[in-house]
Amino acid sequence: MSVVSQVILKADDDLRYPSAGELKGIQAFFKTGEQRFRIVETLTENEKKIVAKASQELWKRRPEYIAAGGNAAGTRERNQCLRDYTWYLRLVTYGVLSGDKEPIESIGIIGAREMYNALNVPMVGMAEAITCLKDASLGLLSAEDAQETAPYFDYIIQEMASA
Q1: What is the DSSP letter of 18?
Q2: Which of 75, 97, 124, 139 is the most exposed place for a label (fewest CB within 10 A)?
Q3: pLDDT one-digit tens code per residue, 54-70
Q4: What is the value of pTM for the model shown?
Q5: 129 near 157, Cβ under 8 Å?
Q6: DSSP state, 118?
Q7: What dihedral do alpha carbons 81, 85, 159, 22 form, nearest 10°?
Q8: Which CATH fold topology does 33-161 show?
Q9: Alpha helix stretches (DSSP H) within 14-142
């Protein structure tokens, strides 16, 4: 939910107008709009490059995942991992665009974690995979844009690591 929606819903719940502090929060949200659009555009336009770099780094760090018997040993399994990478990257763009981590949680981070546990996918490996995705993504952004984007990746990493 966007900052604007949150303020409106909170004010309505309390049967009041938005406070001066809430309006300043909305104003700050609008001021960062151009940056958020730039970040989302960069990540979206470079999705294939980011996913390729992140997966190569993960396979280098964890070759046992693609070795016989690993969770990503076959072509089908590896393609599912790459599909998941794009899903997590898309979740990050939703968070950046809305200026909130709520879309990441509401769209299904908890359900995804439960699914991985049911499939015996090592959660430590998922956290490491998202770290590789984060590194590949932030490497394409300016320092300021990377600083704005990192917390959304960190939230996913934390949620995966806490399973």
Answers
A1: P
A2: 75
A3: 999 999 998 888 888 87
A4: 0.87
A5: no
A6: H
A7: -160
A8: Globin-like (1.10.490)
A9: 20-31, 33-45, 47-61, 75-98, 102-104, 110-118, 123-138
